[in-house]
């Protein structure tokens, strides 16, 4: 007996799934703004109205910076994915923003892996997942490099109360766990959803080095742009701090926030908590920092996800011959 669903029924469920993704993303955005215990949305709006810093010129510059942030992210994706399949900037644009919308409410943006892979036929999907992993690792590498430098200058310029004995103990335990896990994985044929770690390793080693270098440089440009955007907002809100000292705190904030597992929609909460602790060293008002964190989130994630929702709704599965 043939139990295959009729074509129209499949299409109906496909449209329903796309609508669910978009509605889910918008609901989480609304919920985050309306039910944020740290920063009530009404207080956020009132604070911005009183500050009156968002002139047309400032808004255009902030949007310009967000646009370039995503321009380099899309260009990086186009560069890396061309290793397995040539794609245009337009297609990379659709894939990047559509995947952002689909992954907005998933833990640690894990939904992005599946969302980008589904744009390709099954024979490409495993490699697309690995390329997305490589893309994220390159961005994390930049965050760690700048974050370590920032933490060093933060510790030398401000009185940071750190229990070094406890920190050393945590690091030693962490290194032992990493070693034991690595040793155990090496001694066994460990796989994750069909991916063996050896195959992942070989895939990255065989990846064109010039594309990895270019991907790293594009990640660096992205980092410099959104870090400067944060500094620019500090200046708009009247925070008197030099660029060097601000970057020490901003880079420290990003690396500390990145190591905390979180649901991406609550990324604003994680960064907000870390930022409040770090900016307390220079006595910056809590409302100012929480407002800046929220604005950064709105500009760099919520706004692009609005555009991405259009591509989610208009998404069609790739044809086999493609």
Automatic annotation (TrEMBL):
Keywords: Cell membrane, Membrane, Transmembrane, Transmembrane helix
Membrane-related topology note: Multi-pass membrane protein
Chief location bin: membrane
InterPro entries: L-PG_synthase/AglD
Record carries keyword Membrane: yes
Location relative to the cell: Cell membrane
Membrane spanning stretches: 12-30, 59-77, 133-155, 167-185, 212-234, 246-269, 276-299
Xref: Pfam families: LPG_synthase_TM
Protein name listed in UniProt: Lysylphosphatidylglycerol synthase domain-containing protein
Lineage: Bacteria, Pseudomonadati, Bacteroidota, Flavobacteriia, Flavobacteriales
């Amino acid at each position: 007996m043939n139990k295959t669903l009729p074509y129209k029924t499949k299409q109906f469920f496909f449209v329903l799934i796309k609508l669910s993704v978009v509605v889910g993303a918008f609901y989480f955005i609304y919920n985050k703004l309306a039910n944020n215990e740290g920063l009530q949305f009404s207080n956020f709006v009132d604070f911005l109205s009183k500050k009156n810093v968002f002139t047309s010129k400032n808004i255009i510059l902030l949007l310009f910076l967000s646009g370039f942030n995503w321009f380099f992210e899309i260009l990086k994706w186009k560069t890396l994915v061309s290793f397995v399949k040539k794609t245009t900037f337009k297609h990379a644009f659709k894939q990047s923003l559509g995947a952002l919308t689909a992954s907005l409410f998933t833990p640690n943006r894990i939904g992005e892996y599946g969302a980008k892979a589904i744009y390709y036929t099954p024979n490409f999907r495993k490699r697309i997942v690995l390329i997305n992993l490589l893309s994220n690792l390159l961005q994390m590498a930049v965050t760690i490099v700048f974050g370590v430098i920032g933490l060093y200058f933060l510790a030398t310029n401000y009185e940071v109360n750190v229990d070094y004995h406890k920190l050393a103990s945590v690091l030693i335990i962490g290194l032992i766990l990493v070693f034991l896990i690595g040793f155990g994985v090496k001694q066994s044929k460990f796989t994750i959803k069909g991916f063996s770690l050896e195959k992942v390793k070989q895939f990255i080693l065989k990846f064109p080095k010039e594309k990895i270098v270019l991907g790293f440089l594009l990640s660096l440009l992205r980092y410099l742009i959104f870090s400067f955007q944060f500094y620019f907002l500090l200046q708009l809100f009247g925070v008197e701090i030099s660029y060097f000292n601000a970057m020490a705190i901003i880079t420290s904030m990003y690396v500390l926030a990145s190591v905390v597992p979180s649901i991406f929609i609550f990324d604003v909460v994680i960064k907000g908590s870390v930022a409040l602790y770090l900016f307390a060293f220079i006595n910056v008002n809590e409302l100012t920092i929480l407002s800046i964190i929220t604005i950064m989130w709105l500009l760099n994630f919520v706004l692009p996800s609005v555009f991405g929702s259009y591509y989610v709704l208009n998404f069609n599965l790739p044809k086999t011959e493609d």
